[in-house]
Design a protein that fits this description.
Helices cover 84% and strands 0% of the residues. By secondary structure, the chain is mainly α.
């Protein structure tokens, strides 16, 4: 899990408690499950995305190429609907990308 765990913690920190609570409300679940959704989302992303392999315009293609499989994986592992997880991804992916950019800058 290594890098997944580190990035997951960083994304949780970037979100902060208030946005995790907001995510939990959006998912109609508890805060711990929302945290698990964040961690599972990070873990389900392709490794090359975290390593900086994605170039400009990544957000526009991210949903097309990555979100559907990530959505399915997270939904299967949490028992939440794919639709709910898809809505969560709309919040999470920009935060994840911000976290990755910060890590790449050092």
């Amino acid at each position: 899990m290594g890098d997944d765990h580190v990035y997951g913690r960083d994304v949780l920190d970037e979100l902060g408690h208030d946005r995790i609570e907001e995510l939990a409300r959006d998912l109609r679940t508890d805060v711990e499950t929302a945290r698990q959704v964040v961690l599972l989302t990070v873990a389900a992303l392709p490794a090359d995305l975290r390593a900086g392999g994605a170039g400009g315009g990544v957000m526009s293609t991210l949903f097309d190429q990555v979100a559907v499989p990530v959505q399915a994986t997270v939904a299967a592992r949490t028992g939440l609907s794919e639709r709910a997880v898809g809505r969560a991804l709309e919040l999470l992916l920009p935060v994840i990308m911000t976290t990755i950019a910060k890590k790449r800058r050092g």
